[in-house]
Amino acid sequence: MATTRSIPAPHPHPDTQAFWDAAVNGKFLIRRCDACGKTHWYPRPICPFCASPATQWVEASGRGTVYSYSVNRHADPVYIIAYVTLAEGPTMLTNLVDCNPDEPLIGRAVKLVFTPTDGGPPVPTFTLA
Ligand SMILES: [Zn+2]
């Protein structure tokens, strides 16, 4: 049931530095557009829905639902890549951790858990809620 693995450190970009700084403090940020009101993932300064530059960081709830996933059984330890649809709307590519890869996971409620990386800020992953 080992589904966690060593994760390389992210390389923050000026557009995402605030995200990683927040992650170090246990906060999960996404972007929201002030023009159309939608949230989006991955974080970017221009809204992907209406092209407005009026976007800002907002703290997400960390709650979501598994949309789909794939188990990498060739890796040691085995790990699970998943699309999680956040309670705020966006669907993000992430990892499921501390989950049984032999158990059906689509549609399951999950919650955010930051997973440490090799010398960098932690990355957002999810586990069953
Ligand atoms: Zn917008």
Give the radius of gyration: 15 Å
Q: What overall form do the CA principal axes indicate? A: globular
Bound molecules: zinc ion
Q: Number of helix segments?
A: 1
CATH architecture: Beta Barrel
Strand content: 35-45%
Q: Biggest β-sheet, characterized? A: 5 strands, antiparallel
| Spatial order of the strands forming the largest sheet | 6-5-4-7-8
The CATH class assignment is: Mainly Beta
Report the end-to-end length measured between terminal Cα atoms: 17 Å
Average predicted confidence as pLDDT: 95
DSSP E strands, number: 8
Query: Structural class given helices, strands, pairing?
Result: mainly beta
Uncertain ranges:
none
Whole-number tally of structural domains = 1
Can you give keywords for this protein?
129 residues, mainly beta, OB fold (Dihydrolipoamide Acetyltransferase, E2P), 3-stranded antiparallel β-sheet, 1 helix, 6% helix, 38% strand, binds zinc ion
List the helices and strands and how they pair.
Elements: H1 17-24, E1 29-33, E2 39-40, E3 55-59, E4 63-72, E5 79-86, E6 91-96, E7 109-115, E8 123-128
Antiparallel strand pairs: 1-2, 1-3, 4-5, 4-7, 5-6, 7-8
The structure holds zinc ion (ZN).
